[in-house]
Design brief:
Layout lengths: L4 E14 L2 E17 L11 H22 L8 E8 L5 H8 L4 H8 L8 E5 L6 E7 L10 E5 L9 E9 L24
Parallel strand pairs: 3-4
Antiparallel strand pairs: 1-2, 2-7, 3-5, 3-7, 5-6
Helix pairs in contact: 1-2, 1-3
Length: 194
């Protein structure tokens, strides 16, 4: 593995009650995070292929850990998202190199299909700073009930020469969705939109 991983973390957030109403079954979001060394920290490098390859490794690893944490089969995953935070000696392009060219295909394999674009965010930050991972339906971007996000934070990451990479997977949409639009059961998943 090209990624020099210092730390891995996985957790599941379940919502059982919202606005005094029971959520049955509970809505669930799994997040898997890798804290890795940034091989290009502190210097400009034109060719970011190494970070792109690391993204491919992490897409599969983190996606599979999310699915396992939820205790579901890959096809039962409903939404996904990705995010990265570079430490102060990195640049936003390092996060983009991990997230965009190659992370998506292994993540899609981990959740079976994934016709829609994987929502993403990237930022610079330091230890203990929040990283928001946007979420969207994995097969149909227009499913409004799955427009969501999950926040992650690690007290000691990312350090100046690190990158914190997060992948989130859900087995449901938001609790009590009621803003209309295409529903998950109506989604065809052919064009990534509907």
């Amino acid at each position: 593995m090209k990624a020099d991983i210092r730390k891995l973390a996985v957790w599941v957030e379940e919502t059982h009650k919202e606005m005094g109403r029971e959520i049955t079954p509970a809505t669930r979001k799994a997040v898997a995070v890798a804290v890795i060394a940034n091989p290009f920290a502190g210097r400009y490098v034109e060719d970011l292929t190494d970070l792109m390859d690391i993204g491919a490794e992490l897409g599969g690893l983190l996606g599979e850990r999310c699915v396992k944490a939820l205790g579901i089969e890959p096809q039962q995953a409903e939404s996904y998202g990705k995010a990265a935070m570079v430490g102060e000696n990195g640049e936003l392009e390092h996060a983009a190199a991990i997230l965009h060219p190659k992370l998506g295909a292994p993540l899609r394999a981990a959740v079976e299909k994934g016709a829609a674009l994987v929502p993403s965010s990237k930022k610079m930050g330091g230890p203990g700073q929040d990283l928001d991972v946007p979420l969207g339906h994995k097969d149909a971007a227009y499913v409004r009930s799955h427009f969501d996000g999950v926040e992650v934070r690690m007290n000691d990451a990312p350090r100046a020469n690190e990158i914190m990479v997060a992948v989130a997977v859900t087995d449901s949409g938001r609790p009590l969705p009621r803003v209309g639009g295409l529903t998950a059961s109506e989604a065809e998943g052919k064009d990534g939109l509907r």
